[in-house]
Amino acid sequence: MSLAVHADKLSKVYPGPEPVTAVDGIDLEVPEGAIFGLLGPNGAGKTTTVGMCTTRVVPSSGRVTVTGLDVTEDPPMVRKRIGVVSQFNTLDRSCTVFDNVAFHCRYFGMGARPAKRRAGELLESFGLSDKASAMPETLSGGMAQRLLIVRAVAHYPELLFLDEPSAGLDPQSRIALWDVLLELHRSGTTIVLTTHYMEEADRLCQRIAIIDFGKILVCDTPEALKQQVSAETVVELKLQQPSEEVARPLRELPGVLRVELGDGVLRLFMRERDGLLPRVVEVAQPAGLRDISISEPTLETVFITLTGRALRE
Amino acid sequence: MNSPTSSAGSRAALYAASFWGIWLRDSHVLRASAFTFITRVLMQPLFFVFVFAYVFPKIGREVRASDDVGFATILTPGLVAFAVMFQGINLVAFPLVNEISATREIEDRVMAPLPTTALALEKLLFGAFQGLIAALIVFPLLYFVPVAEVEVHIESWPLLTAVLLLSTTTAGAAGLAIGTAMKPNQIPLVVSVITLPVIFLGCVFYPWQELAAVPWLQVVVLANPLVYVSEGLRAGLTPQLPHLLPWVSICALTIATAILGAIGVRGLRNRVLD
Ligand SMILES: Nc1ncnc2c1ncn2[C@@H]1O[C@H](COP(=O)(O)OP(=O)(O)OP(=O)(O)O)[C@@H](O)[C@H]1O
Ligand SMILES: [Mg+2]
Q: How many CB atoms lie under 10 A from the CB of residue A24?
């Protein structure tokens, strides 16, 4: 399988009175055709990593190739092959929605007529046609985000980078965004996205790298990552009076890995649930069991297990 | 799927197409704001001519050059120079400051498939183009607005053309250098610390030779590129007035374009690449 992105001991130190090591010797392999997620909290080094892959940040050491081209050796040619949606709204405010896309096509060498045709078709298929002659400031956040994606893919890039594409979107727009990305993926575009939404990474990505303090803690499929949290099942018990007294006997049940005492709930991390559930209910019953919910571990659990802290502070 | 573009020819074609696309975008934006542009270009020269060449004589405070040339004639090359420089700094630098820092709009052009140096050169040359349009708007205004007589004697068209073109590239380069060096909150500072001294000490209102009356100032202003724009245009438009030797102005403007251009190209690279 050929690699869309290959980073080798890639580092970035921002110079200054107190140099900041934003990315600390990471190795990354993004297979062609994948949706790849970089997951990490604020300041983890996601934007810096994407910046180095997209020719915007010059690596301090190490090497990164994008579609086989070294980004520091041939930035213009790398740019030709990638599309980038940055973390900010960078729409051209002096041009209409239509012109934002049409001029973008011209920057990538399309002629006047093909550029116009491409802009028209894309706006149509992304549901932005009726905004074609509007100015970008008048778009809602979700529409602006969609237009940024339209613009980024207008020159038929092989590889699309998106830096926190769903930040600031309401749940509905977020789901619409996921559909757009899945559609692009189906049409053969490799996608690299950063996010700090676990659910987003879980839903979209075939591979996820968890990054923290500039280092990649782990990189695998979402399923494999979740299996790392040796628990198969998380059972949440809503109790009238959750207490150490109830927790102790539960902890001693075979197959229960860990019991956490929370606000009105007891959380059990179990290796498997077959046959165990009736015993749990039996033990918890006297403490006033009101509700029971069973779920699989999430990437959030993975992150907490890896770093000892929650992703969203 | 793109085939690797390896030959120098197709690479040059890609860069050229990209450069042209960005130029088209800038012209489109300029056309869309043509009214604002023209108004900005016209207002200041109009008021200078009106006050100095019309109101002053009426209230008996006429300013005359030593050899009895009307002040309007002295002002004409100066104000064309002023228009070129003012457009260079204002119309290139200020939008650029915002595009780089505040709105990050330049992002899409930075990600275009051409070297960042070429993007900087596009900014410089488009600034020069705007300066040229400004000159072509201001000159007829000064010449035909019937407030005072202007005596223009163009002796050498090649000289005038060379001075004009080098003046506009100097202005574009200055705009690029300033625009990439400043942060948005420094704009008012730029106006008072750079624009004002450059304009008032740019030999716009007096030929350089007459500064002999204040010798230290006559030396100090030689660091101001606008001096060579004004003096070069005096040599081109009103050679009957005292002016610096044309080749001095031409060399100085060439050097100014090169230095300011180099600062601007480096500035843009530093600002858009980390
Ligand atoms: N231009 C810069 N100069 C100096 N330090 C920087 C620069 N850009 C980022 N940093 C620092 O590098 C570290 C990583 O930043 P980066 O923007 O890559 O993180 P991130 O994962 O994208 O965070 P977020 O989720 O907030 O976008 C941070 O400590 C940040 O302060
Ligand atoms: Mg970021």
A: 17
* Ligand 1 touching residue A19 (CB < 6 A): no
Q: What is the ipTM of this complex?
A: 0.86
C-alpha distance from A139 to closest chain B C-alpha (Å): 15
DSSP string, A24-85: EEEEEEEETT-EEEEE--TTSSHHHHHHHHTTSS--SEEEEEETTEETTT-HHHHHHHEEEE
- The CA distance from A45 to A214, in Å, is 5
Among B17, B22, B112, beta carbon nearest to A79: B112
Domain holding B152, by residue range, is: 4-272
Domain count, chain B: 1
Domain spans, chain A: 3-223, 230-296
Full-model pTM = 0.85
> Is B274 a pocket residue for ligand 1 (Cβ < 6 Å)?
yes
Question: B115: which chain A residues are within 8 Å (Cβ-Cβ)?
Answer: 75-76
Please report the pLDDT score of residue B138 as a whole number.
85
Q: Is the confidence at residue B253, as pLDDT, over 90? A: yes
pLDDT score of B132 more than 70? yes
The whole-number pLDDT of residue B11 equals 87
The residue whose CA has the least distance to atom 8 of ligand 1 is: A48
Q: Provide the pLDDT for residue B10.
A: 86
- For A3-223, CATH number out of 3.40.50.300, 1.10.3720.10, 2.60.40.420, 3.40.50.2300 equals 3.40.50.300
| Lowest pLDDT segment from A44-48, A270-274, B116-120 | A270-274
A178: enclosing H helix or E strand: helix A171-186
CATH number of A230-296: 3.30.70.260
Q: In B, which residues are within 8 Å of A75 by CB distance?
A: 115-116
Minimal CA separation from B202 to chain A, in Å = 33
